[in-house]
Amino acid sequence: MSKSLVIVESPSKAKIINRYLGEDFVVKASVGHIRDLPVSSSSGRGKKTTAKDKKTNPLFDRMGIDPENNWQARYEIMPGKENVVSELKKLSKDADKVYLATDLDREGEAIAWHLREVLGGKKDRYLRVKYPEITKAAINKAFENPGTINMDLVNAQQTRRFLDRVVGFMVSPLLWTKVARGLSAGRVQSVAVELIVDREREIKAFIPKEYWTIDADTLTTHEAFLKLQLISKNGKKLEIADEKAANFIKDELKVNVFKVAKVEAKKGSLHAPAPFTTSTLQQSANQKLGFSVKRTMMVAQRLYENGLITYMRTDSVNLSAEAISAAREQIEKNFGKEYLPEKPNFYKSKESAQEAHEAIRPSHPELSAKDLPASVDRDGQRLYALIYARYLACQMAPQTYETTTISVEAGDYLLRTSGKTVLFEGFRAALPSSSKDSNLLPKVCVGEILKLKEIIPQQHFTQPPARFSEATLVKELEKDGIGRPSTYAAIISTIQDRGYVKIERGRFYAEKMGEIVTDRLRKSFKELMDLNFTASMEDNLDEIASGKADWIDSLNKFYGRFSKTLEEAKKPASEGGMPENKAIVTDLICPECGKYKMALHTGRTGTFLACQGYYDKTVSADKRCKKTLNLKEIDLNDFSKKDLSETDEAELMRKRKRCPICGSVMDAFFIDDSHKLYVCANSPACSGTVLEEGNFAAEQNQGPVIECDRCGAPMVLKDGRFGKYMACTNTECGNTRKILKSGEVAPPKEPAVDLPELECKTPGSHYVLRDGAAGLFLAAHNFPKVRETRPVLVKELKRFRDRISPKFYYLADGPEADENGNPAEVRFSRKVKKQYLMTESNGKPTGWTAFYNEKEEKWEINLPVVKKSTVKKKQTVQKSSKK
């Protein structure tokens, strides 16, 4: 009897499903898509050219779709998938049924359709199965009720693919002609870049304004401290513009009596957030774990494929009745009945929510993060813990609190302060807040006279709009209806790869080429760059997916308008076409010929100066001046700061030179040791430049100067292939140190310690002790040939104490094991940026940790939490020997 063939997308998923289905099924993975439109213009090489081929539009041939011939598509087996397809074809011939068990979104539906088309045979032997989670119950249910391929979903996916293909392949060549070679455009990505560019320009055009606030430190009659903030005078809100006005008010307040006028207490409640959708998971993971959107989706994919969470691409906040019941059971068990609302909490999904499956939740509600199998890596544990906490919290009672507001009169002035007391933590027991929930105020009575300690005027400046982080960009894209959560990771990755934007310190910065391309597309393709149009296209895709719209008709309507716009954009700028990327003429005379001025050019590879004589057509081409000058951008980031905050950036902007034409801030460049060039941040739209002469030789070595940890010579900031770094000025030393993402100079590293006594698992390899950015660890001596690493044990440091640096003696003197005899190993805490000790049992953390108290020179041990207690007991171990 022949076995049925089941095709899934990933090998890890195949292994789990194979266990659930048994011996009557063969489960294989397609490893994603098996065919797609041609990957490049070289696709189809080796084809014999016929007369018919010569008549076809070469652009349409490269695209693989013909929008002028009913959108006929040429799909090809993807490079590297030939063996996969060959094996699946062989297995499908011997199978009586083929179950297409790919993911349950549009992309998964399209993969199932491509598989059916490639494998061939009768269509009725192909069955489509969908499951929201990889559990035995869900898999069995799916295979008991198989369906067929939903062509509406397939067509929606094809429509998106074709639209993106047309825009990318037909607009990009225009950008090469008008702006610079190697550029590209995208239907959704270009709109995302536009959001970042517009925010960049808002920030650069922003002029900070000074304002002052005044606080008063007071004492109650019981000597309790109470800080007040000045609010109004004679019932009108106070706006203090400068120091003079602040000092005048300060002098008036000093002579007044501070009398409590009102004490108000109000009770309130905070309801639990809905369970995670794709976008809210991406935002939360970025804010709380520091994960990029791409990293979040990769980790979530692994958790899903290992049967730990439900499908991670969803717009829905719905939970099944079974999931709600299981959550309530876990809440009562772990927190108590008082944390359960009388009725389950239900949440409403957005109208545009696509597939009608569940929100993201644990597949096994009884499995908390600490119970995960050892095979789940650290990222998986952290993301799972976030999902698990949100899942439980969404079914818990609200947090209740009381806010107290104290109003104090001081003559004509009114001062105020507010405090908050949590009465019942509710869902916060499972999902703690990152900020302080309670802010207790001392008890005061109406009419009570407060004792004034100090009046504190403080200068402030208004802040520019905040830069987008990945979390806030996702939120903005979702709000504007641009793309779908499942596409956000690809969007963010693409706009960085194209060099249109960059991320520094977790915030988006628009690159100059991103601004230029945005301006050109906005001028010539207004509809394409319109947020409402992009959002309406997403709605149209939803209508196609639900069978309410015809996909070919939708494509034809778009292409009809788009092709006309494209023809207009191809015209010269003088006739209304897309403007060229014109150079900006500066006041610097060419140092080569001394006749022409130098002009600023912006290309894909950066900004440079070129002599205008190159374009003088009265001179023969071979005699024209070809002098160019590289520009070194002056980085205004302060590398002495751990993190460049929005306040710091506003301070830097106040110091920057302003454009004499439009008033925006100017970007600064070194031309050489005696010339500095300022260029309007809005260039080339604004041609403002300022040339400055002087002695800038010393200034070019900008950045921090630190002492070399090896030879004592100065280390200076350098630019390298992989970014900025510190380099020793002593050429014989050659020491370098990284600049971390936070802007800090990386701590010095100790030389590796060879430990031939410690053998690796790989025969012929042994460990060396290395000092990395995340502290001490053991790595194979022949790394990277043998990629074997592990934490070092305290007992191993004790054993080789005579070989290690004295700076690590405190680790060697730490406790060797916990109370159960589990060996202590050295780990690194990114949160506090310190090395600490921990133990594991059967590959799982025991909860035992130890941190070194440098002031008291002793180890503080945190014992595992017992039962419901949230307080960790501490004991100390006196250090055996000092450094």
Automatic annotation (TrEMBL):
Gene3D superfamilies per the UniProt record, alphabetical: 2.20.25.10, 3.40.50.140, Bacterial Topoisomerase I, domain 1 (3.30.65.10), Topoisomerase I, domain 2 (1.10.460.10), Topoisomerase I, domain 3 (2.70.20.10), Topoisomerase I, domain 4 (1.10.290.10)
Enzyme class, broadest EC rank: isomerase
UniProt record, GO biological process: DNA topological change
EC number: 5.6.2.1
Chain intervals for the UniProt region annotation (Disordered): 38-63
Pfam families: Topoisom_bac, Toprim, Zn_ribbon_bTOP1, Zn_ribbon_Top1, Zn_Ribbon_Topo
Annotated SUPFAM superfamilies: Prokaryotic type I DNA topoisomerase (SSF56712), Zinc beta-ribbon (SSF57783)
Superkingdom as given in the UniProt entry: Bacteria
GO molecular function per UniProt: DNA binding; DNA topoisomerase type I (single strand cut, ATP-independent) activity; zinc ion binding
Catalytic activity: ATP-independent breakage of single-stranded DNA, followed by passage and rejoining
Sequence similarity: Belongs to the type IA topoisomerase family.
Assembly and binders: Monomer.
Name of the protein described by the UniProt record: DNA topoisomerase 1
Organism of this sequence: Succinatimonas hippei (strain DSM 22608 / JCM 16073 / KCTC 15190 / YIT 12066)
